[in-house]
Structures are given as structure tokens and as C-alpha cells.
Write a structure and sequence with these properties.
two-stranded antiparallel sheet, alpha+beta, disordered C terminus, homodimer, 60s Ribosomal Protein L30, Chain: A
Amino acid sequence: MTMIGPYSFEDYLQAVESFHGSVAPGLLVGGFMVDLAMKRMPEGALLNAISETHACLPDAIQLLTPCTVGNSRLKIINFGRFALSIYEKDSGEGVRVFMDAGRLESWPTIRAWLFKLKPKAEQNRERLLAEIREAGQRLCRVQPIRVDRQHLHKKNKGRISSCIECGEPYPLQDGPICLACQGATVYVSIPDRQQGRSMHLILVKPQHPGRTSRGLVGNCGMCGEPYPESDGPVCHACQGESVRVIRD
Amino acid sequence: MTMIGPYSFEDYLQAVESFHGSVAPGLLVGGFMVDLAMKRMPEGALLNAISETHACLPDAIQLLTPCTVGNSRLKIINFGRFALSIYEKDSGEGVRVFMDAGRLESWPTIRAWLFKLKPKAEQNRERLLAEIREAGQRLCRVQPIRVDRQHLHKKNKGRISSCIECGEPYPLQDGPICLACQGATVYVSIPDRQQGRSMHLILVKPQHPGRTSRGLVGNCGMCGEPYPESDGPVCHACQGESVRVIRD
């Protein structure tokens, strides 16, 4: 029976669908790759992982190993290659698994997918998944690697302080104010209803009108109007609403 | 009963332990934050997410929303703040949830943890988890946000080609050779056994001696010795071994 990590092939498909949202080809290839890597590693070792791409592969790693982005044991370092490494946390020694393009002659549908030779709408998805299942680990190659010592250890965030601009905790090593207040934001500035505009999305920058304890009256984070903070993070009216945008 | 997304509090702890590896305080706070955000979003909307930190929060998002790093619906943009946004994929409209440091007066153990006022060994873990459970969403504030249009859509990788250095598929827009071959690597260069050294970890750079079909004799990716490629990605001998490093 084809196994991927602890899963039967069918159970792995279910796990992928539930976590990733769809049975993406990259998760199938990735499953075989992670399985191959994990079998090369000593049992009981504390393992870390690197994905050399953002696409799909990180989810196969997160499903099949103890390494996740949130526990800092999976790093995504975008070299644009569909490859991953699993290695011992302290020594950096382990294996790299990559797709061997030279072996794709016998798997034309996989080749067309990997090299994006056809638009997605023209790809035969069933055939692609069947080819991946048939090819399995024969698509992959394994290399021993050692990860450079400077990439092995988590950087310490150092002291945490409240940003004097937005009031939120941030690592002091980022500067006198947090990175977001230094301008590194992804949010657009939106006029505040409190400033007399009829646009109802409020400013991105959090407002901290000197409140230091619960039980005080503050401005609702949703509509901007005063309310008793003991009601929760937004006022009762807004607790009943989903996001609503009313334009000018 | 305290619920976090679809989970009872106890089931959420189990899900966290299984995915993240431990019941980290950041996953508990994060669970309340994600739950708060998701309740503000319209049902059935196609949602994307941003985590403003690498630490813990991405895993709460991946557990409780359809957004993962591998399906590109979760982006981690490190502003160093313990905050997240959930927003509609196309409009960018949604909510940001952050921890309100001004509300931590009543929760000294949470405050000490968030601001790292005590070394980890001196923290009272049980008390910390109990405080987080008690405080729940009262720790958080919600802001409506709109994500800047330029950050909304996935960048297309464009054409994929085989790198003429390493032979692996890579996005042609990265340059004439892939980023790794341009020098952007995390691996140290290791002497190759085939070059007569007794160090048994082989070169990181993949070797592609002109093989274009299966069934040929190639060099084993593990020990570097010639073997029939039909045996699999590594030779039979190496299929029975875990990673073994023999030094000079």
C-alpha cells in the first residue's frame, strides 16, 4: 500500500483537503518528498525544515513533520526551487529532496504542470494526480546537506516595549517606534468616522486614549463610538454586525 | 462553554499540541484573536490573512481558518507586532485584531510573558495559561482595515525553466540561473566523496550528468556512487541507511 508518512494515500488526500483546502498536485509531490526525507533522518532527532518555495511544499512539511512556521521549525527561504531540506536542529546535518526534471520524460503531464507548459484550465487534473501517484518517489532525488551554522538558530527578539506611536508591544531592536509606525504597512489609510466623514472604516493606526485598566469608557474599535469597554473589544451594536462598509 | 472557532477549549488545546508541538501561550491568545476576527467576517466570503509576526500566531491562523502559508492565503509580514488581519481576498476589506497592552493591568502574568519581563524558566506556565483562558477576548481589540491593493494578488512566477547550473526548475524571472546558483544558499559546501576525500557528505549542488530518462545508471544522490536509477532516488545500500556522517 502506498503510504505517505503515517497516512495511507487516501487518508493523506483527506488531510491535505482539510488543511490546504484542495488536493493540489504540489501537496502530493510534496508528500512523497517529505516522506523520503523523513525516512533518511535518525529516529528521535529534533528536526527542522527549510522549504525553498512558498508554493504548496510548506503545507506538506507542516502536515507530515513537527515543523511549522509558527513554531519556527520550518523556514521558507524562497530560492524558487521545488525542494525541501530536513535537518537536525543543532548540527544542521540532514537531507535535501528535490524534483529531478531529468526524470520527467516518462511523466509528460507532471512535466507540463511543473514547467507550466499549459494554462491551468487546459491541464488534465485527474491524469496529473494519477501520474504523480504512479511516479511517487521516483520523481525525487536526495542529497545530504549541512545547513550553515548562521542559519541554525532563532534570532532573539530582545527586549519588548510599547511603541510610543501605536501603543502595541514590539521588539525594541526595530527602532524607537515599531516597524509599522515607521511606515512598513500593508494597510491603506482610511478616513475615521469620528473625523466627520461618512466613510465607516476607521483609521488603521490604533488609538489609545490613555486607557490603562478595564472598565473604562473607550472608543469602539469597530464604529469608533464611545462605549463601556467591559462590553468586550467592540461595542454591543458592532458585536451583532459583520464587516460593513458604507461609502461616501 | 469557551469555544475557539469550531473547537471546545479542550479540543483546541489538543489540536494545538498535535500541530504546533506544544500548548504555547501564543497559540492560546492567538486562538481567541482569530476567533474574534472570523466572527466579524461575512459567512461564505473568500478570506485571506496576514500575521504581523512569525511567532506562534501563524499556527493559530492555519488551525482556525482556510488560510495556510502553502496555499498562499496566509502571508507573514513581520512588523514585530502580535497582531493579525483577516480580510476578503478581492476587496482587501476586513479586520485587524491586536493585543491591547493597555488592558493587561489585570493580567500581570500575561503582561510579563508578552513583554518578556521574566526569563522563560521563571515564568509560571500554569498560571499564564489560566490567565489567558480567563481573559480570553478581553485582551484583544478589533479594527476594520483595508489591505492595500498592491498586496492583494499573488505575484505570478511567470515562465519556468531548467537552471543551466543545477538543472532544477526555477522561475526564469529570477535571472539566467536560479537564485541558489546565484549564491543565495543556506547550505555549506561539503567535499564530494567522488573527489577522493573521505568526508562522506556530498556536494550540495546537484549533479546532472546528462541523464534524460529513467533506467539509466546514475550517481546515487546519497553516497555518490554509480547505481541503476530504476532502484529509486538513492541506491539500495543507501535506502537502508539513515543519514550518516563520517568525518575525515
